[in-house]
């Protein structure tokens, strides 16, 4: 984290706009990754895991474990057929499936007959220090939760670890609890991100106080853009959690709502931090700009003092450097021409005069307060 | 899109203000285009199309196809008589017809006895790269939808294509679904526009980082104005869609409302992008201004360092360029006048002195940190 | 409209504050004009007009035309006695009469027992191009509407013309419709004003792109003040119209409410334009300021390049202009003193040296990108 | 009002913070004035006045006039015992009494069992032109109103005059009407203040257009602070009046509520003026800053044009001022050394050359538009 | 408080983020202090105090004093076991305990079955003049209130003093009253802080008027950050108090709600002061920046006037310093070469000419108003 100035980049993928397309069309972006399916089937005592790449993996596992809760974890959305098969298998609306693959959704929570659907934004710095902003979606129906992630990264490792350990409500809370746990992990990662940004702000402020240079504006710009990204994810996330708390779906039990209220508080806290960080970033910029302005002022003062002192002196030297002739073409002395040059001690008097003029000017500047620090 | 600096222009047409005119007056602007009427009459199995320029085309087609849904598509609003005839034919309020021809309406949705009326803003870059902001209005009554567009451009080609293909709900959803499909197409085009703006912002930002020049301010200005235009269309569009969702007109069926909820989400997403783009544009401006300020600072520093170093040296040279005479008019040596000039090695001492003064000044500047990058 | 820079002035009249005065006091400002009364008595078939200056005119006309609607149009509020007589004649609350003469009311609509009262702001550029902001108030009771205007200007000419022509609902809509028509005329005039401002903004923007000078800031300032004035009138006007729509007074019939809804839309549209114009004005200012900043930058660059190139060269010329003597007082050659001056080709070498130094500096500036356009 | 730059000062009194003190503690600030009690006991026909400094004055007067309304006017809060005695006499809650003496309350209106309590901010310029911001509080119970003011100033003179004159509802409206009348007087004085500020703004704007100097920023700063002060008083005042209107206390009769609605309108009008004045002040600052910026620009242009024209010319003069010798030490002519100096008409050619160079530079500047007014 | 520029520092402790951790985990930060337990058991007549470090202290004291109200005051949160034991002893939800140890909560008030939980932010300048922002939490259940503070500082000394004195409701108001008293003390300290900030603002403003220097920007930056911190605590505190007022818990009695309404007013007053202080700080910054800008202007004017006057004069001196020879190599007089130098009174004429040029320039500057103060 030595030099984060060059650090924050944005992984862009083109948005696919199919103007006037039939609503509910499932159109896969070209750069989508092939899906990896992991299924966790668990109850209080048992946990079975299977991996695969197609629909068969899912149907077999669900057929095998009848009294289990199933978490179908799909990493990569590159297979339109799979998404549609899942839609048919569970009876999911086409519009929902479109939202799963069109990965620019704002966080939201929708209730449908027999199932609920939610999305969130996963935001993190990847190993190349690019800011990744991708989509998580989840469908909860009966004893099944399907989670969709864009990348193959094992983002939810902490949740699978807790699941394997089997501690706490995670095995018994049902698919709704898993959905909460995933959302909560995403929120926790916002705090990780905000803590990194907090460090960046501190570094930038230290730089400002110790050795300000023009990278500060770039740093501040990066910070601002990252904060805008987090805020854009956080605001609708709060509304989403609120919708979940007020939801009457059987999937969101009263116990889960208690946890959700906690998540809601975290969300507000994150937004609160974003706003504070934005204000601090703004005041860093203001302070920096005022330092630039002051610096300019100081430079101008040095230039002006030196110039203004020497310009008249140089002029006087120029005067006595003129070649007005003491003699006309006929060799007669022209008495009026620069008599000072021919006077005893003339040179000394000239130097003293210059010195006094310089001194007088310094005195004027001192009176005007130019030697104070404005 | 190589150089979009000169690109965004606004196609202006004068607003016609008829102060104190009777409400409901249909006054056609001078530059309105002559109407082109296209009628699509369709049911699940059949699609008939006819084109024309007057009321007769409409009445004949409607008489002919009795169990069809009719989409009367009117491009060009230059015929007051036609508008009034349609009004009489369908029993439309004069105030509604006035809103159709007075093409500066904000998006809105109004319900009347037996029919509904809605307007939207169509915004796009035309082939001369001018930003066009014109009006779409639609009236839905029974099995008829009439759509009014200002231009002859085939803006809704994608919808007519889907209609001809006959896939999806488009043939069976009734005139309300057509109205939704047109609105949705307009919204999709906002995303096309926003994606173009996103590219412009990226280009401007790249320019800022690579070769900043003063066109950046003009680009930013253009971006801002375009964003203001989209926002002015998007905010009331959201309210309009919301009004449609809460409407109890039989024309807006429950199925359509499901799609409208999707369109509502898109609308919020568009507004969200507009806000983010505005913030990013602002921070580009801030960064650019700080670069200008820094550049000025740098220029001033160079000027000051060079000036301040040479001004005293030039003064010294000036001193020794003075013509104080070594001899008075009588040929006697004046010992006091510039004895330095007659000293062995005087010139070398003078050069060394100047060199040391210059060095001392550089040292002072170095101490003051002027060689650092503020 | 060639030069509107000097154009926007504000006609000020002192506000009269009678601290602690009894509420309902009718205190006439010194500069109020004497009243001119015009009465239009009309029904579907008949229109009678009479003019006068006192109460008698009113009572006679009303006594004469019993089955007519009366519009008592009063221009000029300079006669306290008349106002009080009208109040007694129609049984109007003292607080209402106070609001009529205290012409700094925000637009509002109040319902009283048996009558309604409303005010609006009339805003226009008068023939001396001053921005006039004066008050319109109207009282509607039974079959009578009394309108009060501050000036003698025939502002509502369009309405009286329509009344004389006898077309539309204007003769049959009752006093409430006249009240609506007057309000609507005021609103229409906001659009005239906004259209003038739109032209000014376009002119200012053209000036900015073609020949920016410092009048732009003054223009922008004028635009802003005018926009603030319109906004101050428009916001409460919207609330007023809304109050009228929700009013249950018999004077505001259901038909009038339909028209009022249209006026409400216009009002929002006007506010929308004001906000857009304010944003555009702000961005014009920003652009102008950045141009000033850039201009300064450019000037500094020219100064710096020329200064920095010539300062060292002039110094060198100064060196060789020094008068270090080749001979001491005894006529011996001092070999060390400026031997360059006595060398074959010395002058040519010096010129070449200066030329190379200048070239080197230009190269440095070119490397630093000073010849690019920041 | 010739020079109000030095005018706006803030009379500060230290806020007394008694951390963790028992709520309801009556702690008198050190600089509080001793109380002056004036009692007006009146009914329609009679008005009796008595003055005093202690509780006895109050009890005697109330005992004496049984069928009167009593207005107990207390100027100066320096006697904790008196405040407590009044509290006990009328059965007032300790928290209310604390609010009376802790004179930093925001305007508010609270209802208690059997009495109501309200505070407002009295704001005015005193005779030393300091902005005074002190507290008015009033308690209305049965037929008694007690008003508390911080200063001995006869701020409510207009109300006592009306009371003595006995005109209007003031004698018969009960203590609630007196409370309204006092509040209304305070509001009227906001308009006096705003009118003074309006004059100041006009003066500042005139100064800006005629002879701008740096006092403008100080003036604007003063205006802003004063506007902030008024706004801080006005916003909660509006809520307070609204609370009074919706109050169901018998002290606030229906008639009074009619007047309060008028006061409410005044309050909104005052806030509206404050907001406009703030915007105008801001745009004065913007305009001034842009003038400073333009002035700098102009100065830089003059400096640059003069410098850039003369620097090369001076360099050329410097060249021909060099002392390259025409003869070497041995008296041989060195042909190469400055042959220009020995040429017929050399001097004239040099002068012409300099003149042409200067002209050429002027032409370049003219081409660059430096002689236009940016 | 002589120099508070270097004063405001922020005591930072790292936030501990346990991504995906089981909700309700009690994880103690490394820098948490060991707990000090003080128990006050009191009724109207009796007050018993005991101190300790573990659970036993608590259970013994509670067992001993059965008809007392217990205030368990815990300073330092470094013992996870203790927190958990207290949780088990009183039956407190794990999520609540997590909020107690995770000391970055926003102020909030939550009701649970049988107990209530609230947090506030304690903000003060410690003896090293660092701004400390730490957490207070309180749990009220039956006759017990447990308060948790992060530091060992005796922040609530005033409350314990009042408790020992036994005056007022503090002994009889129950644990809810103690909770109110602690919250109120925290609020009172906000006013202490705001009063310190008010002094700082006054000092900064004085500095601005008397001897402005660049520390002003740093001071303003510090003020702003401190104000942001207070506002972040104050806004949710207001909501919290409001929640308490609307709470139906038996712990918050009707009497306490009366006091809470008072605290609510204080909270709004504090927020109001924060907003005013922010505006004043902003306008100080604006004024300072304008002073910097004016100062620059003044410096530039001096530089320009002196430079522009002397540059042409020095050029003329340079001209007459040129060495154009009066004789060609053959000794012939070259009449054209600088004849001015050989003219009678030439030198005097030259000096007079220079003087007139300088005078003319001064006249031009005076005409341009450069000697006015812009």
Automatic annotation (TrEMBL), chains A, B, C, D, E:
What keywords are assigned to this protein? Answer: Cell membrane, Ion transport, Magnesium, Membrane, Transmembrane, Transmembrane helix, Transport
| Membrane spanning residue stretches | 299-320, 347-366
* Topology within the bilayer: Multi-pass membrane protein
User: What protein name applies here?
Assistant: Magnesium transport protein CorA
- Which N-terminal residues, if any, form the signal peptide? none
Q: Which gene encodes it?
A: corA
Location(s) in or outside the cell: Cell membrane; Membrane
Tell me, what does this protein do in biology?
Mediates influx of magnesium ions.
Question: Which Pfam families would you find in this protein's record?
Answer: CorA (PF01544)
Species of origin reads Mucilaginibacter rigui
């Amino acid at each position: 984290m030595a030099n984060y100035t060059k650090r924050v980049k944005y992984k862009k993928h083109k948005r696919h706009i199919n103007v006037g397309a039939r609503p509910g069309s499932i159109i896969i972006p070209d750069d989508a990754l092939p899906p990896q399916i992991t299924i966790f089937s668990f109850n209080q005592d048992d946990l079975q895991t299977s991996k695969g790449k197609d629909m068969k993996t899912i149907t077999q596992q669900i057929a095998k474990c009848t009294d289990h809760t199933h978490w179908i974890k799909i990493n990569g959305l590159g297979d339109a057929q799979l998404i549609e098969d899942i839609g048919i298998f569970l009876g999911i609306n086409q519009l929902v499936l479109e939202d799963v693959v069109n990965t620019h959704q704002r966080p939201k929570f929708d209730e449908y007959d027999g199932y609920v659907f939610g999305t969130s934004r996963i935001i993190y710095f990847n190993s190349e220090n690019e800011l990744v902003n991708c989509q998580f979606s989840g469908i909860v129906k009966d004893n099944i939760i399907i989670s969709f992630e864009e990348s193959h990264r094992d983002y939810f490792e902490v949740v699978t670890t807790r699941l394997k350990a089997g501690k706490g409500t995670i095995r018994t809370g049902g698919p709704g609890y898993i959905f909460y746990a995933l959302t909560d992990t995403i929120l926790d990662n916002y705090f990780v991100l905000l803590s990194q940004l907090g460090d960046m702000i501190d570094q930038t402020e230290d730089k400002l106080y110790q050795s300000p240079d023009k990278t500060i504006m770039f740093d501040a710009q990066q910070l601002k853009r990252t904060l805008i990204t987090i805020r854009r994810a956080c605001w609708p996330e709060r509304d989403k959690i609120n919708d979940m708390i007020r939801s009457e779906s059987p999937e969101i039990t009263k116990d889960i709502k208690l946890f959700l209220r906690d998540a809601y508080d975290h969300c507000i806290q994150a937004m609160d931090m974003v706003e504070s960080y934005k204000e601090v970033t703004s005041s860093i910029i203001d302070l920096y700009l005022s330092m630039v302005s002051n610096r300019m002022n100081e430079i101008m003062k040095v230039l002006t003092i030196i110039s203004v002192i020497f310009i008249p002196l140089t002029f006087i030297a120029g005067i006595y450097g003129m070649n007005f002739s003491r003699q006309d073409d006929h060799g007669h002395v022209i008495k009026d021409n620069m008599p000072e040059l021919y006077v005893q001690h003339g040179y000394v008097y000239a130097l003293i005069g210059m010195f006094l003029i310089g001194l007088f000017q310094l005195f004027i500047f001192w009176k005007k307060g130019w030697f104070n620090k404005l």
